Amino acid sequence: MDPLDWVNGLKLGLLAGAAIVSIVLTPPVEPTGTELRDRVPEFGAGYASPSVRRVARWIVADGDNGRAPFAIVDKPDARLYVFDHRGRLRGTSQVLLGSARGDDTVPGIGQRPIQLVRPDERTTPAGRFMATPGRNARDEDVIWIDYDAAVSMHRVRLTQPAEHRLERLASPRAADRRISYGCINLPVAFFDEIVWQMFGTRGGIVYVLPEVRSIEWTFPGMRRFEARANPTLAQGAQASGPAAPVFEETAANPGRRASTPTRAPPSA
Prior knowledge:
The chain has helices spanning 50-62, 165-170, 188-199, 215-218, 220-229, 231-239, and strands at 6-9, 18-23, 70-74, 79-83, 89-94, 97-98, 127-135, 141-146, 151-155, 178-180, 184-186, 204-208, 256-257. The chain is of the alpha/beta class. The strands form 2 sheets. Strands 1, 2, 3, 4, 5, 7, 8, 9, 11, 12 and 13 form an 11-stranded mixed β-sheet that branches. It has a two-stranded parallel sheet with strand order 6-10. Helix 1 packs across helix 5 (220-229). The chain is globular and about 50 Å long.
């Protein structure tokens, strides 16, 4: 068993299931005089996909997160990685994501009653998001990823027993963990002890990896950083993988901040 992973009760009154969760208890270490561009993310001994490691390397080396904590959602693997502002992994957990495949949200979907959201519209959007803490329409703690689209990170919700969300959350198959309307559902303990502790006061930045678009188009800042660092390598990375549509740079999504709340939308 990987030392990063441990099973934690979901703290929902009665333990109906378990999810694989890991928390990294690395003691804080003051930074040295190393330049920010020379920094590398600290994953410890845990596994992370090449795409997660690539995005984390750019974030930390380029200082894209500023002084904010950040999280990476590996959508193909349905897993969340949470880092402190210096790029040290604080925890990783399996998560539930939108049941529909896709990297965009339907315009205006956040204003619709949740029962009117069609199955093909239940996507978790990809991109760079300025995440903010708040409350949803049920008066629950959430971390808003895209407020206008009603997409947030929150504790796993068990309002529909037929969905078997606890069992899905514990499943080793990423496909089983695609069940939500677009929100990122987390084990209760992981949300309380890691996500809310890191993001609950000032928020942070959440990077959601794509599953349809190319990673280079989704994160143009990473593409520019890699081009500066190693032009030959960057060109090779851009040419590999699924073909991406050609857009002007202004059409890319460098980051979205949640709108000022006027009415808390639902989340699921």
